[in-house]
Amino acid sequence: MPTVNMSERDKTQEEAKVLPEHVGFIMDGNGRWAKRRGMPREYGHKFGAQTFEDVMDYCCHKGIRAMTFYVFSTENWKRPKKEVDAILHLLDSYLDTCRKRLAQNDVRFVFIGDRSVFSDKLRDKMDAIEAESAHKGYTVYLALNYGGRSEIVHAVNALLEQGRTHVTEEDINACVYTAGSPEPDLIVRTGGDLRISNFLLWQSAYAELYFTDVLWPDFKGKDVDAALDSFAQRKRRFGGV
Ligand code: IPE
Ligand code: IPE
Ligand code: MG
Predict the structure, then answer these.
(1) Is 16 or 96 the better-scoring residue by pLDDT?
(2) DSSP result, 31-72
(3) Ligand 2: distance of its center to the CA of 23 in Å?
(4) pTM of the predicted protein model
């Protein structure tokens, strides 16, 4: 009989099935994708929006219970007005589509970031989607006018308003926008840059990072699988041995 160590083999098979509970996506590369096609950057955002929907559906299908998609950062207002307007227009029409499709999926949508800057019309659409999807099983956070630093400042201010003079990590955990979901255990950035760009700074303390050169509009199910395979092979120590 070969000396197969069954428990070791079972362990390996078990590890191969390790799925992150929460994946964050830094959806980068839309502008370059469009430029390579001789098109304006806005064209890339349009295709990027379709990729977002496909990746969200695919992750749900894979059984990933929570996802955060970085849609628009607190720094992205520095872009030309034409591009910002095009992104806001895409967002507006996506919110309509999203609301119409709520019945077809099991996704709870939560809009994270400082939404006070958006028009009443956009905010009302976000509020309606959040309310109508509040009971669903999967959670999708859409980060809009979001910055990790701004989120931490927002959390601390919320605690100060409660009269607190001393705060703990648990207090801040309870006040970040993703409170109630596990911290992201995997953060995926497309587009080839090796940085976090102010995304989920507090929550990503022990996230595994995965970077790919694939530009966001080209990111497909097989690329999600590659990120998940990489995640399944990581040895997470959380400071231990
Ligand atoms: C990400 O793609 C989308 C947003 C930041 C809104 P980019 O627009 O940053 O695309 P690149 O990085 O310039 O190619
Ligand atoms: C990060 O991409 C923000 C989003 C994907 C929404 P950026 O393109 O804004 O990041 P930098 O400027 O290259 O760091
Ligand atoms: Mg970019």
Answers:
(1) 96
(2) HHHHHHTT--HHHHHHHHHHHHHHHHHHHHHHT--EEEEEEE
(3) 17
(4) 0.94
